[in-house]
TrEMBL record, chain A:
Protein name: Amino acid/amide ABC transporter ATP-binding protein 1 (HAAT family)
Pfam families named among the record's database cross-references: ABC_tran, BCA_ABC_TP_C
Family matches, as PANTHER family: ABC TRANSPORTER ATP-BINDING PROTEIN (PTHR45772:SF1), CONSERVED COMPONENT OF ABC TRANSPORTER FOR NATURAL AMINO ACIDS-RELATED (PTHR45772)
GO CC terms: plasma membrane
Keyword Nucleotide-binding: yes
Alphabetically ordered keywords of this record: ATP-binding, Cell membrane, Membrane, Nucleotide-binding, Transport
Residues annotated as domain ABC transporter: 15-264
The species this protein was found in: Simplicispira metamorpha
Coiled-coil region(s): none
UniProt GO molecular function: ATP binding; ATP hydrolysis activity
Automatic annotation (TrEMBL), chain C:
Keywords on record: Cell membrane, Membrane, Transmembrane, Transmembrane helix
Pfam families: BPD_transp_2
Protein name: Amino acid/amide ABC transporter membrane protein 2 (HAAT family)
GO molecular function: branched-chain amino acid transmembrane transporter activity
Cellular compartments annotated: Cell membrane
Automatic annotation (TrEMBL), chain D:
Membrane topology listed for this record: Multi-pass membrane protein
Name of the protein in its database record: Amino acid/amide ABC transporter membrane protein 1 (HAAT family)
Single annotated GO MF: transmembrane transporter activity
Xref: Pfam families: BPD_transp_2
Protein source organism: Simplicispira metamorpha
Automatic annotation (TrEMBL), chain E:
One GO term of the biological process aspect: L-amino acid transport
Protein name per UniProt: Amino acid/amide ABC transporter ATP-binding protein 2 (HAAT family)
PROSITE patterns: ABC_TRANSPORTER_1, ABC_TRANSPORTER_2
PANTHER family recorded: ABC TRANSPORTER SUBSTRATE-BINDING PROTEIN, HIGH-AFFINITY BRANCHED-CHAIN AMINO ACID TRANSPORT ATP-BINDING PROTEIN LIVF
Key word Methyltransferase present: no
Molecular function via GO: ATP binding; ATP hydrolysis activity; branched-chain amino acid transmembrane transporter activity
Family in the record: Belongs to the ABC transporter superfamily.
Length: 286, 363, 345, 292, 277
């Protein structure tokens, strides 16, 4: 899947967020947010909790209407386009608080991701003949061979998602997002709640999606190790505003980012610092 | 002539909101069947009564009809509601073997062309209104009569025609009030009623509620109207439940009350002998239905005609100046689908009885 | 390629009836359905037709409530729309039977879509109560419009198919049952495609479904439309079956009956709609049989109707408390128990 | 325009709305704590009225005994209902619990028909019969006193919720039962309490309604209007119950007297739909928080 | 394994948990929390960490899980006979996975709801125990700012603060913390863990801490357990765990030489854990 560059210029960004502003009543979730996502890149959005990262994702995918600014995708202004149509255009995403459909099997959840790209209408569906049948068969084959295989979830394909552990659910979320045939894959905290080992697996998938499928990735993540290692471009939000963006290393060193988001990073001897004088420590360790 | 039983099937509302009537109807039919059989049946053939409970639901009634007719050779049938009478009518015509009567007095059913195999055991609702209006016109010419009725097929049934009739009789209808089915709080309606200041108010389409509340509030507001009702409100026990509000309540009744001893009535004596305690007007209705069933069947058999819907109905319509043994105070003639006879009774709370307030009125 | 099952192809994996056992039992069931009218009395045929109509309508409601998660208390009203359409067309236009049925379906569908419009904003039980409004508005129209015969309703001549009047349960059976089966197959097919999946997604979490490419309003209206189309056709059949429609023919209680049927049967499964409708229609009749078996049953007759009412309620409660997935789940368990019986090899 | 008539109608409508409000309060109590849409509310009213009938008419108890006995009896029924059919469904989807109350309604109607038969009956008269005159306008005494009782109850509940942390416990439980447990709230107690109080309010309401309109096994139909009221007011709002009740009472009265009885229900349902289109959670209902 | 003693505020002995009568989530798990200490419980997704906490706090029944074998002693007394709210009132607070704040309530009301935990507490020298809202606001000033706002609209970190704050209101002896760092920014993780450590140090509150972020967890904990598949596989002091080679590789992301591995270099998805073989 090769991304097309409108206007022929290889530098034309795939997604352009420009001056986006979003308010809930009095709360300003986003103020004049602007950044570009280059095709084939992995771009990370980081920032403190409540900075507006998820709101930004929701605005890009069309769940929220921005009060100002514009969003361009593949050169086209999509600010006024409804969410389902954006999905069809190639915006795929996963959700921070897992949003799998609990009444369906893993396979059906993944199939659902393809919805916007299918053409079966009601009549076809009721008859299940001709187009509906062909389309379903093709879909099943594609999902089996490309996605289920790729993410190694073949053993659970018929399991109801409600019976899966958190980590597997995250993986199915990713599978569903991939089934959307996205040109840009938006992942909201893909490794939250995972331990190091599982995080490594997920990191590998993300790299492969980009390298082997040519899908551009835009992700929100709090795991700094992963963000710094994987991403080409980092955007930092604070109180709904972009306070820094650029190469990971540059952003990491930005004092404002450290103050608002990263902290001292010096957690290793937290206990020694705090417990040194307390009697609890004297009891020793079990 | 065969010797097999003549079967009366019955979709009877022994339970549900109409149970108070169904239980009486059932007993009435049963008793008359027993009287006939004890007297040797009809031309040597016994009557067999096969009732089933319907809970006063149309679909259950239909199922019951199907069940009874597929298990018995039925010639006579008692149905429980207007809805059932209408629903089963096509089947009656197709089946052809059955004549049916029922608990409904719907005006629509009083049409021998549309309902050739059915009849009403009394006046239809419009005729009931006619009897009341005729009485009013006599008692107080030019009176103002208000109609209060429920928003249901039952309630709306006689209203339009009766308004026309009232005009013809020189009465005026200053207000017609329709209450939603099942409504409890009728105070706004009472206000409306009071403004119209009627001399008479006729309630229709209710059993009991909200009539007592209408009367109580009306009286509290100083209304001087007389209050009237139609058949299903008029059972003695129902009116007595109205309490003080019910005193002087009037209404139309085609039959004599159980305790009415004002005239000679051998059938009533028989009933009182069989059942020493009070029997409802619904009982009388069932009893009379069975009596007319039997009479029609007898006439059919006597004429040597097979028992079927058409013949039975023809036999019924041949009834002229028939003596019901005092159940109805005058001899009856059944020209069409109804028996347009009735009398106005009035509640006497002290005596806890309904007392005649008019003579028998035939339309 | 690893599929992990022994299915020959993905098509086979998605087939409605795949194992040999299933197919055999299906053949047995079909044979029984064909033989039934020749063995049963008028009474049982009557019940069979009624059950069949109820199955069709319950399946429609299942699409909307069981699969799409939109609780509706208007199913009876939609049946009424279908029934009245059929009645009006049959009595005033005299158009052919099947055309009338279809028209009944489409008019009800239109009604359903109109009622569905608030569903984008109004959620959950707020919506359920709003659908009650639809019932009352429909009732008002039926009762006060002279075109529909007012409170008296309309009487309908028997349908005729190929010149034969469908005036007995026996004849109607051959029309009603096949139509129901076709509708059932349609519904089952629906849930093998993207449309059915979209419905389920809306049920499970509508806001995320939207972001995944499902236009909510369109699909909610589609679900309302399909469901009421089923109701409309069922109502049309009902009209030809009872041959009279009145405003009282489709009370709120009937909507509740259908909701109860899909709950008892099992929401969100086609089998559930079937089992539930059959069960709930037959229970009162079976109860009557049981009562008849009691010694001196006449004494208890006065209790029959209350008992029926109580049992109706207890069934709903009992299933929800003890078997929330309904008869369909019980059936699955029984099937697992017998496994491949009798074709074990 | 006959202003006196309009005034009289409005007054009566508002008082009638008071009766709705009281029953709606019973409904809201349960919803607030348990998120159960209790469609059997009308039937609970009915049970309260029948118990009163039994104690007052059949056992001939004096009023001051019969009313509390009926109220307590219905409260007990509330506790039994909660224990046997609501608590086992903790955590099930709302529609399941909703349907349980549908079943409950049916069971209650059946029981009443079995014990007392389906016949209509009258309750003993116990309310003042002195008509209430507001200027020239006449107000039926029962309706007036019923409305007074309703307003007193609602005011009391509003006060309680304002100054008692139990109100918070109620809402916390409704919001997340597991979390409520985890902060030390006795969730089963909250559930029982809500149902008992609701049933008791329903009984009071049933006694008043029954004494106006008589009682019968189809009295539960009243619950339908109550449902409209709570939807209009917002399922979880006490104030909404009051405002919704008055509004619907008014609409019914106006529609009934100016358009005709057949328009009463139609008008209320049209008002309902209109309000839902503008405010999907009723006038005062809490919005569901939807975030991705 | 340490034997339970009165020094242990919590002692879990050989418990087994089954969900829905079929899924076995815990298979003979034992652990202890010494009084005044923070104990970390680590393990991969689905290992049964949350289940362990739910078993202790009695919330298992709400999810159709049953404790089929083993004992749980809180302050030396079995918890088996107690309803969840009774345990909370006895001083055992559970901060659930996913925060679980009361979304329709304001921040303040969330805290008021939490005061139910003090019901029936024995009186101290100062009379009936009083809820200390100021304490919560002092640890989490951000909550004070948002105290009139609906909890449902708080950001993830704020909700986590509120959840911990709710537990603090209960003045517990033991807090069960389920993934407090889930979805929090690095700075907030640091802040929250600093506060956790402070609460422990200043108030002597014991804690059983379930965490995926092993680095911080082991930094604040005194000791720890690692579980897989419903059983404990390693236990020991925080220092010992932090130096275990497997823990270093799978939980801390260190290469063989002790340096942090880069995510870019990971080639295989599946590796074997030595302690499982
Ligand atoms: N639907 C909504 N209504 C009102 N406020 C909202 C809504 N959605 C988000 N907010 C507010 O907008 C702000 C940004 O929230 P958002 O969820 O985008 O943060 P975030 O950066 O994703 O945080 P986290 O890292 O915790 O997920 C917060 O203050 C939040 O309370
Ligand atoms: N409510 C439930 N019903 C059925 N199975 C469950 C339930 N909750 C958990 N399980 C199963 O029990 C096992 C342990 O789950 P648990 O939630 O305790 O894991 P965990 O260690 O907390 O994982 P995570 O890090 O993903 O939160 C898992 O296999 C899970 O599938
Ligand atoms: Mg977020
Ligand atoms: Mg967990």
């Amino acid at each position: 899947m090769e991304t097309k560059h409108p206007g022929g210029s290889p530098a034309a960004p795939l997604l352009q967020v420009d001056g986006v502003t979003l308010a809930f009543g009095g709360v300003k979730a986003l103020t004049g947010v602007g950044f570009d996502v280059q095709p084939g890149s992995i771009t990370a959005v980081i920032g403190p909790n409540g900075a507006g990262k998820t709101s930004l994702f929701n605005t890009i995918s069309g769940f929220y209407r921005p009060t100002g600014g514009s969003i361009r995708f593949k050169g086209q202004d999509i600010t006024r386009i409804p969410a389902p149509q954006r999905a069809r255009m190639g915006l795929g995403r996963s959700f921070q608080n897992i949003a799998l459909f609990r009444g369906m099997t893993v396979l059906d959840n993944i199939k659902l991701g393809r919805h916007a790209h299918l053409n079966t209408n009601v009549l076809d569906a009721l008859l299940y003949f001709g187009r509906a049948r062909r389309e379903e068969a093709a879909l099943r084959a594609d999902i089996e061979e490309r996605i289920i295989d790729f993410l190694e979830i073949d053993h659970i394909r018929h399991a109801p998602v409600s019976a899966l552990s958190y980590g597997l659910q995250k993986r199915v979320e990713m599978a569903r997002a991939l089934a959307m045939q996205p040109q840009i894959l938006m992942l909201d905290e893909p490794v939250a709640g995972m331990n190091r080992e599982e995080t490594e697996d997920m990191a590998r998938f993300i790299l492969d999606v980009r390298d082997e499928w040519g899908v551009t990735v835009l992700m929100v993540e709090h795991d700094m190790g992963m963000v710094m290692d994987l991403s080409d471009h980092v955007v930092v939000l604070n109180f709904g505003q972009v306070i820094a963006q650029g190469q990971p290393a540059a952003v990491q060193g930005n004092p404002e980012v450290i103050k608002a988001y990263l902290g001292s990073g010096d957690v290793h001897d937290l206990r020694r610092k705090l417990h040194a004088s307390t009697p609890a420590n004297a009891a020793g360790v079990a | 002539q065969g010797t097999e039983d003549i079967v009366i099937g019955g979709s009877i509302p022994m339970t549900g909101v109409f149970a108070f009537a169904g239980v009486g109807i059932n007993a009435g039919i049963q008793d008359y069947v027993k009287i006939t059989n004890d007297a040797g049946g009809i031309k040597g053939r016994k009557l067999k009564y096969v009732p089933e409970d319907t809970g006063y639901k149309v679909d259950v009634s239909v199922a019951t009809f199907k069940k009874i007719t597929s298990q018995n050779k039925v010639n006579l049938y008692y149905g429980d509601s207007t809805g059932f009478s209408k629903t089963i009518n096509p089947e009656l015509e197709r089946n052809g073997a059955i004549m049916m009567a029922g608990a409904s007095f719907a005006t629509e059913l009083n049409d021998p062309k549309k309902y050739p195999h059915q009849f009403l055991v009394g006046p239809d609702y419009t005729e009931m209104f006619g009897i009341l209006l005729k009485h009013i016109a006599q008692e107080k010419p030019g009176a103002k009569v208000a109609f209060v009725y429920s928003d249901s097929e039952f309630g709306r049934d006689p209203i339009d025609e009766s308004e026309a009739l009232a005009k013809k009789l020189g009465l005026s209808v200053p207000v017609k009030i329709m209450t939603p089915a099942g409504s409890v709080d009728v105070s706004t309606e009472v206000i409306k009623l009071r403004r119209a200041a009627p001399d008479y108010t006729i309630f229709h389409g209710y059993i009991l509620a909200p009539i007592p509340e209408f009367i109580t509030q009306g009286k509290q507001m100083g209304m001087t109207s007389k209050w009237m009702g139609t058949f299903w409100t008029m059972d003695s026990s129902t009116v007595m439940k109205m309490g003080p509000a019910g005193d002087g309540f009037m209404g139309v009744m085609p039959y004599r009350y159980y305790y009415d001893t004002s005239a000679k009535a051998p059938m009533l004596d028989k009933i009182r002998a069989m059942r020493p305690e009070y029997q409802s007007t619904a009982y009388m209705q069932g009893f009379l239905a069975a009596m007319l069933f039997t009479e029609s069947a007898k006439r059919c058999l006597e004429a040597g005609k097979p028992l079927n819907g058409t013949n039975l109905k023809a036999a019924l319509n041949s009834i002229k100046d028939f003596d019901t043994g005092g159940l109805i105070g005058v001899p009856v003639t059944i020209k069409g689908n109804s028996i347009p006879v009735g009398r106005v009774y009035k509640a006497d709370m002290k005596a806890q009885k309904m007392l005649p307030a008019s003579d028998w009125i035939t339309l | 390629m690893r599929i992990g099952t022994l299915k020959e192809s993905y098509i086979a994996d998605a087939a409605l009836f795949d194992s040999r056992t299933q197919k055999t039992w299906l053949a047995v069931a079909a044979a029984l359905l064909v033989l039934f009218p020749f063995m049963a009395s008028d009474y049982w045929l009557y019940l069979a037709c009624l059950v069949s109509i109820n199955v069709a309508s319950a399946t429609g409601l299942n699409i909307l409530t069981g699969y799409t998660g939109l609780v509706s208390l208007g199913q009876a009203a939609f049946m009424g729309l279908g029934a009245y359409t059929v009645a009006v067309m049959e009595t005033r236009l005299g158009t052919p039977f099947l055309l009338n049925l279809l028209a009944g379906g489409f008019v009800a569908m239109l009604g359903g879509i109109v009622v569905g419009i608030p569903s984008l904003r109004v959620k959950g039980l707020y919506l359920a109560i709003a659908t009650i409004a639809a019932s009352f508005i429909a009732h008002f129209i039926f009762a006060n419009w002279s075109f529909t015969g007012g409170t008296g309703g309309l009487s309908i001549p028997p349908a005729s198919l190929l010149g034969m009047p469908l005036d007995t349960s026996f004849r109607l059976y051959w029309v009603i049952v096949p139509i129901t089966i076709v509708m059932l197959l349609g519904a089952a097919n629906l849930f093998r495609t993207r449309i059915g999946r979209a419905f389920i997604a809306i049920r499970d979490r509508d806001i995320s479904a939207e972001v995944l490419g499902i236009p909510l309003l369109r699909y909610k209206l589609l679900s309302f439309g399909l469901s009421s189309f089923y109701a409309g056709v069922a109502g049309g059949l009902w009209a030809y079956f009872f041959r009279v429609v009145t405003p009282e023919s489709f009370p709120l209680l009937m909507s509740i009956f259908f909701l109860a049927a899909i709950i008892v049967g099992g929401m969100g499964t086609i089998l559930g709609g079937i089992l539930g409708a059959v069960f709930m229609t037959m229970v009162p009749e079976l109860l009557k049989l049981v009562f008849d078996l009691l010694p001196n049953s006449a004494e208890y007759t006065v209790f029959l109707s209350p008992v029926r009412t109580i049992i109706f309620g207890l069934l709903i409660i009992g299933f929800l408390v003890f078997e929330p997935h309904g008869l369909a789940e019980m059936w699955r368990r029984v099937r697992r128990f017998f496994h491949l019986w009798p074709f074990r090899n | 325009m006959d202003w006196a008539y309009l005034f009289e109608i409005c007054l009566t409508g508002l008082s009638g709305g008071g009766l709705y409000a009281l029953a709606a309060l019973a409904f809201v109590m349960v919803y607030k704590a348990t998120r159960v849409v209790n469609i059997a509310i009308g039937e609970l009213l009915m049970v309260g009225a029948y118990l009163f009938f039994t104690f007052a008419s059949m056992f001939a108890l004096p009023l001051w005994l019969a009313i509390p006995a009926a109220v307590l009896g219905t409260g007990l029924l509330g506790a039994v209902i909660e224990r046997t059919m609501i608590r086992p469904l903790l955590g099930e989807p709302p529609i399941s619990v909703f349907m349980v109350t549908v079943g409950l309604a049916s069971v209650l109607v059946g029981l009443v028909e079995m014990i007392w038969s389906a016949d209509q009956r009258r309750l003993p008269e116990f309310m003042p019969t002195q008509p209430i005159m507001v200027g020239e306008a006449f107000l039926a005494p029962k309706v007036f006193w019923g409305a007074v009782v309703a307003v007193v109850f609602i005011a009391a509940v509003l006060l309680v919720f304002r100054f008692w942390r139990g109100g918070v416990a109620l809402r916390a439980t409704a919001s997340d039962q597991a979390a409520a447990y985890s902060v030390g709230i006795n969730v089963p107690r909250v559930f029982s309490l809500a149902w008992v109080v609701s049933a008791m309010i329903a009984a009071v309401s049933g006694i008043i309604v029954g004494s106006i309109g008589g009682i019968s096994s189809s009295m539960g139909v009243f619950g339908l209007s109550v449902l409209v009221v709570v939807i209009v007011g917002g399922l979880d709002s006490v104030l909404g119950a009051l405002v919704g009740g008055l509004l619907i009472g008014l609409v019914e009265a106006l529609a009934g007297s100016y358009l005709g009885g057949e328009y009463k229900l139609l008008a209320t349902f049209l008002v309902l739909v209109a309000i839902l289109m503008v405010r999907p959670y009723g006038l005062f209902g809490t919005h569901e928080i939807e975030r991705l | 394994m340490t034997q339970p003693s009165t020094d242990h505020v919590l002692a879990v002995n050989n418990i087994e948990v089954i969900y829905n009568k079929v899924v076995q989530a815990l298979r003979g798990l034992s652990l202890v929390v010494p009084r005044g200490q923070i104990v970390a419980l680590l393990g991969s997704n689905g290992a049964g960490k949350s289940t362990t906490l739910k078993a202790v706090s009695g919330l298992l029944a709400l999810e159709d899980g049953t404790l089929d074998a083993g004992t749980i002693l809180f302050n030396g007394q079995s918890t088996a006979q107690h309803a969840p709210q009774q345990l909370v009132r006895a001083g055992l607070s559970h901060v659930m996975e996913g925060r679980r704040v009361f979304e329709d309530l304001t921040v303040e009301e969330n805290l008021i709801a939490a005061t139910y935990a003090l019901t029936g507490r024995p009186h101290t020298a100062h009379g009936a125990p009083k809820p200390d809202f100021d304490l919560v606001y002092e640890y989490f000033p951000r909550l004070h700012e948002r105290r009139k706002g609906l909890a449902g609209y708080l950001s993830g970190g704020e909700q986590q603060m509120l959840a911990i704050g709710r537990a603090l209101i209960a003045q517990p002896q033991l807090i069960l913390l389920d993934e407090p760092s889930l979805g929090l920014s690095p700075k907030l993780v640091e802040d929250i863990f600093t506060i956790i450590a402070r609460i422990n140090a200043e108030r002597g509150t014991s804690m059983l801490l379930v965490e995926q972020n092993a680095t911080v967890a082991l930094a604040v904990a005194h000791s720890g357990y690692i579980m897989e598949n419903g059983k404990i596989v390693i236990d020991g002091s925080a220092e010992r765990l932090a130096s275990d080679p497997d823990v270093r590789e799978f939980y801390l992301g260190m290469g063989g030489g002790g340096e942090a591995k880069s995510f870019k270099e990971i080639k295989h998805y599946k590796r074997r854990k030595r302690w499982l073989s």
